[in-house]
Amino acid sequence: MNQSRKQMVLEKSKFHCINFLLSYETGKVVEIQNKKVAFWYRLIQLSVIIYVIGYAIIYDKGYQEIDSAISSTNTKVKGITHVNFGNFPSTFFNGRMIYDPQDYVIKQDGDSFFVMTNMVITPKQYQGKCPEDPESYRTICKTDKDCQQGTSNKYGHGERTGRCVPSDRNSSMTVCEIYGWCPTEVDQLPMPNNNFSKTIPLLDGTKDSTVLIKNQIHFPKFKVTRNNIVHHQKSGSYMKRCRYNSTTDPLCPIFKLRDIVESCGDDYTQVGFEGAVYGIVMEWDCNLDHSLDECYPEYKFKRLDDVDTPLSHGYNFRYADYYVENGTRYRTLTKAYGIKFELVVHGEAGKFSFIPLMLNLGAGIGLLGIATFWCDFIVLNLAKKRNVYRNHICESVGRGMSSNEKSSLDGDTKQNCDEKKTQEENNLLVHAF
After folding, report:
1. Which end of the chain is more exposed for a tag (fewer CB within 10 A), N or C?
2. Locations of Basic and acidic residues compositional bias (predicted)?
């Protein structure tokens, strides 16, 4: 019995396999004369054609091959300013001092540059013993027992000596003595012993300084190299007088620092007091089907730091200059506040290619099937005469027919075909809704 069942299953499998190999499916074309369905069918087709040709191919340049740029950038800042240190207690910083870019441009590299606008200077620090900053965490003491020798805290300036001593900042306070770089920094703006307004940074004059940005990009796929100094700008006289202006001179690569900040809606003097971060964005969008003279960048500016952050507002860092005097090593510690300019380059080029054009056209032809899908859905599921349409659209022909029917199907004369066609048209000339 089991053997017979296995034989039946095997025969059935062979039957399905042969049926699959020897059968052929084809779409049946049924013409439905229904104005509403025809209207939606043509409307969807038209929408797809407009999208593919108008947007995907023409507007979005779907006929082009795209390549991304490799970029290199360098900058050169020019301009001088001065600081009047007044009664600042140091022979190194006393009276009027001139600052040029070698003094106030710090941490300059290809992708960014920093312009110092304000500072806290602690001159002539040496390794020794001194009172800790009373503003430092857990430094107030009453007795020596409060200052355990050899301990320190991560917010302090040195290692405790074990003594509780009067503060050199406030005689009414006693603090732990430390061993470290002395005297400790007075982290306060403006610097002590100066009469500068609290709203004006020391190097406010840097707002009139300029920066020349040189940007070179390369599109490896197309072997095209461009830079942001276009042909008519390469004369020395033009480069000396031009200044970037989004309206009158949008291609000039020389920018006034004040203009960059103000283009973001900020005031240079206010921003310079505690510092900020700005982005200089260079966008290259090159159509290599046109002249290379039309391939140049568009400049945009954006503030990058969080204005509303409650912690460490602005932008600053510390650096030290070391020297030796009479056998003792000293340093001048500077806490630099300023504006960091980040250079961001986006580059893309396109050139005609047959492959992306064919891919977009093929995708468009495929999208035309949306019209057929939705109209079939309406006809077979929503139309009043959907059963009539279903009978004419869905039909099985072949296995199960008698030999006479097959002969009739294979040998229909043109007259019989015309009669059937006339009958089908009469059945389909109905209103769907």
Report:
1. N
2. 407-421
pTM of whole model > 0.90? no
**Cβ atoms of 164 and 146 closer than 8 Å:** yes
Looking at the chain, the whole-number percentage of residues with pLDDT higher than 90 is 47
Give residue 272's region: left, alpha or beta (phi > 0; psi -120 to 50).
Answer: alpha
Helix/strand/coil for 130: strand
Pairing between strand 64-68 and 328-352?
antiparallel
What pairing do the DSSP bridges indicate for beta strands 276-287 and 328-352?
parallel
Give the SS3 label for residue 171.
coil
Length of the chain: 433
Bind-site residues for ATP: 76-78, 210, 316-318, 335
Token pair of 40 as six digits: 């939606």
- For domain 69-132+184-347, give the CATH number: 2.60.490.10
Q: Please report the beta strands in 141-219, taking only residues with DSSP state E, as ranges in sequence order.
A: 158-166, 174-182, 210-219
CATH node for 30-63+353-392? 1.10.287.940
Q: Quote the CA–CA distance of 324 and 190 in Å, as a whole number.
A: 28
The burial of 299, by beta-carbon neighbours within 10 Å (0-12 exposed, 13-18 middle, 19 or more buried), is given as buried
Could you tell me which residues are annotated as the binding site? 76-78, 210, 316-318, 335
Angle at 43 between CA 41 and CA 45, to 5 degrees: 70
Q: Where are the domains of the chain?
A: 30-63+353-392, 69-132+184-347
CA 336 to chain centre: 29
- CA distances (Å), 73 to each of 110, 216, 258, 269, 424, in order? 5, 6, 21, 27, 74
